[in-house]
Amino acid sequence: MARTRREFGALVMAGVGATAIPSALNASTAAAQQATEEVGTAAAQAAAEVPWGGPLAPDKPLAKAYADAAKALSEVDDNPMIRWHHRVWCQTGYRSPGGAGTGQPVDQLVDPAVDFVSPKGFLYKDYVRPMPAGGVQFLDNAWYFGTDFIGMVIVRTPDGLIMLDAMTNPQDMRTQFLDQAAAAGLDPRDIRYVFLGHSHIDHVGGANLIRDRYAPHAKFVMGQPDAAVIAAQRADLKKHKDEYTEEEHRARLALLPNRIDVEIEAYPGHTVGMKRIRIGRQTTAVAMLAPGHTVGQMHVIVPVVHQGQAHKLLVWSGNDNIDAAAQYAVSADFVQGIADQEGADVFINTHAYQGAAYSHLRALKADPAAPNPLLMGRAGVQRHIEIFGNAHRALAQRLIDGTWKAM
């Protein structure tokens, strides 16, 4: 059974970052629990062996110019999510407390109720809680379900429900969405499209439950390079089926989407691409292949409504991957252009700790009239993405200069 503990962890770690799995996972069976825990163990070991990126020395001129440009954009207004983006990526990076060693001592959080990333850049997940019952309705027709760390977005359209990302495993899908959907006035059988932002297990682990039990006719969408990663992982598991018990093998396959219906491909000669997805007669989504966090990372723009007014929501799936900073800058520029073209004016990341969005979501749950920094406006979304692009141009130059350490 050595493969169970070592090779499957490596298999999924090919698509899982060091913080991809929340610290506590509940699985629907003992085998599924073991599978997800082993992925988390592999991630923790990777974090302990390789420190996360962060500053080692002062910036040289070119990197400083990029960082200064990001800072100037972050100070245009006081939107806390936009300022978080600059602080974390340009000033601190972020690392695991267990992966200290990049020249800075581990420091403690100021207030876990509002941010999981400490002033010197260490990411703490010990305080993660499930979102309030019924999820958080952050727009008239959009909800966030999951935890303070990772979750998914549901958008209700005239043509049915759109799901963006799919939790970590079937049990999380049940407890964090399916058991709460009715309270939010949602029926999972109405799901028409499921957009899987990237191949990490914490974004796809509940996908098969949705297809098999609730929405068999739904279309599943993913970036083509990540769809290939998932296919390779499934093929490897099937090839080595005799090395697992039947229950273990079934549990592991259950975490990997069994079919991708629509793949977003790169434009010829490029790493990025875009496809319009017709949800129904009245609704079209825009899916963008934008590598960085993974080779096939995808972001999606969907039409939404808030206080009776039409808006466009940009759903971003994951962020970190410092050693791919140069590609991430290219992808950010591409997404920024498409977001401008489509008029995106609302932004959410399915990792709710990024941007410290979880605290704002909780505030909106308690008081729907509370300030909503996700409603950035078109100019705000443009600045948010441009800060990210400039931050990653700075990061790429820092790696060249040797003034920051990558993963």
Uncertain spans: 1-32, 39-52
Major β-sheet strand ordering: 2-3-4-5-6-7-8
Bin the strand percentage: 15-25%
* Rg: 20 Å
The total strand number stands at: 14
Helix content: 25-40%
Could you name the key traits of this structure?
single chain; 14 strands; 407 residues; five-stranded mixed sheet
Description of the molecule:
The protein has 407 residues and is α/β, with parallel strands linked by helices. The chain is built from 13 helices and 14 strands. It has helices at 2-5, 7-13, 30-49, 61-74, 80-92, 170-181, 201-204, 207-214, 224-239, 246-254, 325-342, 357-366, 377-401, and strands spanning 54-55, 136-139, 142-146, 151-157, 160-164, 191-195, 219-223, 262-264, 273-278, 284-289, 298-306, 309-316, 346-349, 404-405. The strands form three sheets. It has a seven-stranded mixed sheet. Strands 9-10-11-12-13 form a five-stranded mixed sheet. Strands 1-14 form a two-stranded antiparallel sheet. α3 packs across α10. The longest helix has 25 residues, at 377-401.
Summarize this, please?
With 407 residues, the chain is an alpha/beta fold.
Itemize the secondary structure elements and their pairings.
Elements: H1 2-5, H2 7-13, H3 30-49, E1 54-55, H4 61-74, H5 80-92, E2 136-139, E3 142-146, E4 151-157, E5 160-164, H6 170-181, E6 191-195, H7 201-204, H8 207-214, E7 219-223, H9 224-239, H10 246-254, E8 262-264, E9 273-278, E10 284-289, E11 298-306, E12 309-316, H11 325-342, E13 346-349, H12 357-366, H13 377-401, E14 404-405
Parallel strand pairs: 5-6, 6-7, 7-8, 12-13
Antiparallel strand pairs: 1-14, 2-3, 3-4, 4-5, 9-10, 10-11, 11-12
Helix pairs in contact: 2-3, 3-10, 4-5, 4-13, 5-13, 11-13
